[in-house]
Amino acid sequence: MKIIAVGLLLLQRTQQGLSSRCRNLYYKSMGVKLQGYVWLRQVDIPRNFDDIEIESFCALDQGVTLLCSGEPLSHPKIYIGAYTYINRNTFIDATLSLIIGKHCGIGPSCYITDHDHGLDINLPPLAQPMVSKPTRLGDRVWIGANVTILKGVTIGNDAVVGAGSVVTKDIPENAIAVGVPAKVIKYRTEQ
User: Fold this and answer.
1) For residues 191 and 178, what is the distance between their CA atoms, to the nearest angstrom?
2) Mind giving me the DSSP string for 140-167?
3) Chain-centre distance of CA 20, in angstroms?
4) Which one of the listed residues 75, 103, 115, 117 is annotated catalytic?
5) Domain that holds residue 142
6) Taking the chain (191 residues) in consecutive chunks of 10 residues, what is each chunk's mean pLDDT?
7) What is the 3-state secondary structure (H, E, C) of 30-75?
8) What is the CATH number of the domain that holds 85?
């Protein structure tokens, strides 16, 4: 019985690996800049493939969406550093510049963006112009489940953002931040 279970598990892993390699080839052919092998499990990149760059040894889990809008720029709108893991159902939405550093861990069902719409009283919500500001996550950042990171935010290296937080302002290096809006409660260097 154990041999059959191990065999089925091995077969499943092999199938997932082959599917991921096929997705790598497909997205590369569409213009996504994949620097080496990236583990891709049923991700969604609906358009603007040339605006995305992902370094090697990243893993994007099932249901991750990478969405770039607007005219192409001279730099990637979404850049993901090497060895970063993005968990299930996370949505990354960029119009200008959204950079995720190396060795980051992003929990499930997060939303990270570099833009929102204006607030002109004379225009309906969807007619508002986009307001964009670069968003950046440093290296080794850990983002808990269901976190929202809004435009113009920089999260410093080695910072942690607790589950369910909404990040509206910069978070310094080594900080642990939680809440709505997220506030620093302590630093990782403190015992």
Assistant:
1) 18
2) T-EE-TT-EE-TT-EE-TT-EE-TT-EE
3) 18
4) 117
5) 2-187
6) 74 81 86 91 90 96 95 94 98 97 98 94 90 97 98 98 98 98 92 58
7) HCCEECCCCEECCCECCCCHHHEEECCCCEECCCCEEEECCCCCCC
8) 2.160.10.10
Predicted local distance difference test score (pLDDT) of residue 23? 86
How many domains does the structure of the chain reveal? 1
> Which amino acid does the sequence have at 109?
S
Provide the token pair at 131: 């307001």
Are the beta carbons of 75 and 96 closer than 8 angstroms?
no
DSSP at 127:
G
The residues with which 113 forms a beta bridge, in sequence order, are 93
Q: What is the pLDDT of residue 58?
A: 96
Q: Is 115 a catalytic residue?
A: no
pLDDT of residue 125: 87
Q: What is the pLDDT of residue 1?
A: 67
Whether residue 115 contacts residue 96, with contact meaning beta carbons closer than 8 Å, is answered with yes
Rg (C-alpha) for the chain, rounded Å, is 18
Q: Compute the distance between CA of residue 113 and CA of residue 135 in angstroms, rounded to an integer.
A: 7
pLDDT of residue 177: 98
Structure tokens belonging to residue 105: 């861990």
